[in-house]
Structure to design on (294 residues):
């Protein structure tokens, strides 16, 4: 605290609630590593106060912001401009200062892509099964489409959302994409080998015993060669445990969380060039601290 002075700049998070957030740990660690004179703080902002919060933050000179639940879509109304990928996804999680307002980006899809690259999980040409069609699944579908997945199947409890998302992904990447219900999923996958990305909140703590593939859908496990779960708490969901026990490759959402934050920070710093440039040693240090805190 003693180092805060007249030159210190501010970064922050807009969300509701925000008390649980791990973002300050990521960004304040990065500020320390880079020797940047700035502080990252969470701001609890209710939906009805979002417009004032965004405009007020810009007037106050706040250098950059993250947006989380429930503001990721609504915030797009109050920005100078939106990056085309964030627009396709329909959600913004990072605001970077422009001339007259903030510019909105989505670093969730970039964070996941970076995490998968580093774990050697390719998307190009893959048959991708996306489980869920909520906000996070939108970023995942856009990432898979833009990375030229060979085919995309989106399974969701509510069919309309799955179909709408498949339409978006299909247009974005010129890739065959279809939305389906969970009923009869095994047959719809036609025996192929799938990269499955679990994007529902089923299995998220405290629902640690939950798994989106139950009953007859347990057969779907046998069609998956690699499983990614966006959930990082617990570190290993029932979905991932089953796949690991079957000898399949698995990855949880912790690295995605870290990299979406690091990419946002590099955007605020003006050093983001499509690849993370923060040293691996620092990434690993922050990752270990995230692991302890989550
Ligand atoms: P969301 O917009 O609320 O979407 C939730 C999804 O889960 C929807 O597809 C919903 O289906 C499905 N779902 C919820 N309960 C279900 C149930 N009982 N049975 C079947 N489907 C169910 O949430 P989100 O923002 O997309 O987040 C989803 C997950 O991703 C969360 O666990 C979140 O923690 C994780 N996440 C991780 C990161 C990361 O950085 N690692 C980033 C973002 C999100 P319906 O559409 O039918 O309701």
């Amino acid at each position: 605290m003693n180092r805060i002075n007249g030159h210190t700049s501010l970064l922050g998070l807009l969300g509701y609630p925000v008390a649980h957030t791990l973002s300050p740990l990521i960004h304040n660690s990065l500020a320390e590593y880079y020797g940047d004179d700035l502080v990252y703080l969470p701001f609890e902002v209710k939906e009805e106060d979002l417009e004032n919060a965004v405009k007020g933050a810009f007037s106050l000179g706040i250098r950059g912001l993250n947006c989380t639940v429930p503001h990721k879509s609504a915030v797009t109304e109050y920005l100078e401009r939106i990056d085309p990928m964030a627009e396709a996804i329909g959600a913004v999680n990072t605001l970077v200062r422009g001339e007259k307002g903030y510019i909105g980006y989505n670093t969730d899809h970039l964070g996941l892509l970076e995490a998968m690259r580093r774990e050697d999980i390719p998307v190009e040409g893959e048959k991708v099964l996306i489980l869920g069609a909520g906000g996070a699944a939108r970023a995942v579908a856009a990432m898979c489409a833009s990375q030229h997945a060979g085919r995309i199947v989106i399974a969701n409890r509510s069919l309309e959302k799955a179909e709408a998302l498949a339409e978006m992904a299909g247009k974005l990447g010129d890739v065959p994409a279809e939305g389906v219900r969970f009923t009869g999923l095994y047959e719809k996958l036609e025996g192929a080998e799938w990269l499955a990305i679990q994007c529902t909140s089923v299995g998220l703590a405290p629902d640690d015993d939950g798994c989106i593939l139950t009953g007859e859908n347990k057969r779907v496990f046998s069609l998956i060669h690699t499983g990614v779960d966006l959930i990082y708490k617990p570190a290993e969901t029932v979905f991932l445990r089953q796949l690991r026990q079957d000898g399949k490759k698995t990855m949880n959402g912790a690295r995605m969380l870290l990299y979406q934050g690091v990419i946002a920070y590099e955007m605020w710093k003006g050093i983001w060039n499509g690849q993370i440039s923060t040293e691996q040693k620092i990434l690993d240090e922050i990752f270990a601290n995230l692991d302890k805190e989550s």
About this structure: The pocket of NAP is lined by residues 108, 132-137, 156-158, 161, 199-202, 204, 212, 230-232, 253, 256-257, 260 (CB under 6 Å). The CA atoms of residues 280 and 286 lie 10 Å apart. Residues 254-269 form the longest helix (16 residues). The radius of gyration is 19 Å.
